[in-house]
Amino acid sequence: MTGAWTALVTTGVGAVATIIGIVVGGFVGRRSEERKWVRDAKAEAFVKFLEQYVSLEIDLRDAYSEGRADAADWQGYNTALVALSLVAPREVSAAVEPMEEAIQEMIILGDGPPNHTEYERVHALMTESYSKFVNEARRSLDRKSEPLEFLVGGPPPWHMVRRWLPPSPAERQPE
Predict the structure, then answer these.
(1) Tell me: the pLDDT tens digits for 9-47?
(2) What domain range is 101 assigned to?
(3) 28 part of a folded domain
(4) How far apart are CA 50 and CA 68, in angstroms?
């Protein structure tokens, strides 16, 4: 009888270990898939927001340089903001605030006469806030990510913008 009990206990332990392995494996696999889904959702929201922000920046810049009202896709931009708010961690959400302030200042600036000195300040705010957002977003996707010192894309450097602007009233020569 001892041999039969040994076989039965060995079989029972093997079955329990198999069941525990399946349960733990399912839990770990589900958790891993959930993390991957969250990371992918964050990356998609970050990309969509940056696309909309850059599109908005271009339209506001063109409106300013052409002296016209903006024709921005505010619905697309706000939709991207809402999607971002669903998945962005606190640090990334906080990085959006100066971007929003820069946009508001750009809109106000576009409503008045051209003022390139003020525009340069607002453009610097847009560029700095864009850079901060990108670095916070990268860090939220990968904690080992090093901050970028310069970016490809986003608002162009001031010297590139300035050369396409018409003279401001202060720069015009009296006739």
Answers:
(1) 777 776 666 666 666 666 656 667 778 888 999 999 999
(2) 44-162
(3) no
(4) 24
For the chain, the domain total comes to 1
Residue 32 lies in a domain: no
> Which tokens hold the place of 101?
């302030």
Q: Taking the CB of residue 93, how many other CB atoms lie within 10 A of it?
A: 16
Contact (Cβ atoms closer than 8 angstroms) between residue 39 and residue 141: yes
Q: How far apart are CA 133 and CA 147, in angstroms?
A: 11
Tell me how far apart the terminal alpha carbons of the chain are, to the nearest angstrom. Answer: 117
C-alpha span between 111 and 26 (Å, rounded): 58
Residue 148 included in any domain? yes
- Report the C-alpha gap between 145 and 134 in whole angstroms: 11
In tens digits, what is the pLDDT along the chain, a chain of 175 residues?
Answer: 577 777 667 777 766 666 666 666 666 566 677 788 889 999 999 999 999 999 999 999 888 888 888 888 999 999 999 999 999 999 999 999 999 999 999 998 888 888 888 989 999 999 999 999 999 999 999 989 888 887 777 788 877 777 777 776 666 555 5
Which own/partner pairs from 13-21 qualify as long-range (CB within 8 Å, at least 24 positions apart)? none
Q: pTM value?
A: 0.76
Q: 53 lies in a domain?
A: yes
